[in-house]
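Aim 2 progress update. The chain analyzed this quarter is reproduced below.
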Amino acid sequence: MNLEQLRGFVEIARLGNFTRAAEELHLAQPSLSRQISTLERELGSELFHRARGHISLTAAGEVLLPYARRMLADAASVRREMAEIAGLRRGRVRLGAPPSLCASIVPEVVGAFRAAHPGIELEITERGSRGLVSALAEGALDLALLASSDAAAASPVSLTRTALLEEDLVVISSAAQSPVSHGRAIALAAVADLPLIAFPRSYELRAATDAAFAGSGLTAEVVVEGPEMDTVLRFVERGVGVAVVPAMVALDRPGLRAVPLASPKLTRTVSLAHRADMAPTRAAAALRDTIIATADALVGSGGFVAKAV
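Predicted structure tokens:
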């Protein structure tokens, strides 16, 4: 058994297709098939059910998958640690964040970190908080910014979390043709009467806003449903409708007008997490310090952002 075989096995399991996995790994498909056949002979078990157009894991494959992911993550950690023997001149850090934070705090963090550590490569994964918790558990991420209070509860491993800030959810509209008054808080009932652009139902943010409307006995007038964060912001800028978003998303966007929700306010806590049983590498620790400093600066700027209690 070797790392190349395990890497091929994990990619096939992720994609459900030998050809696509071979493309991701920059291998010829027959070479990947031989690797997997050799691995199966060594283990004495078939790992995949092979059917035309469909590949799925056998019972043996299901058992192997978490071990394979952990072994690959451990190997990557060894490589990163060896690269850091010479200091923070080279290395790699994997950071995960939800789309809303990739559109707000993450660019600030990346800019500051790259200026201080130009030799460190950053890999950014954009995913919902629950998916990020799973990636941390699998060893696929070093750090993750989480934007929900309960996502870590379902983690199969213990996570160390640091609360960074608490931010309001605000209502955004087009600055050029806004249906809401500048600077004045808007009631949730008034938002329900406006054309609303709604996020995918898999978003924690969508679940929070749906619960707020339902809790107040309101039904929102959804005109567009399902776009990702960047698309929602563009739709709002062009006057298609309004949206309920985290406050930081609206910073430095002159095409948007943001107003707070009237009582009861909706807020969310942003936290930084890593696996409790894996000490951050020096590069990951440096990125963690940059994230905390960036969050502190955002809190100091005021607006709708306040330090978490």
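Residues 16 and 198 are 31 Å apart (CA to CA). The first strand starts at residue 48 and ends at 51. These observations will guide the mutagenesis experiments scheduled for the next reporting period.
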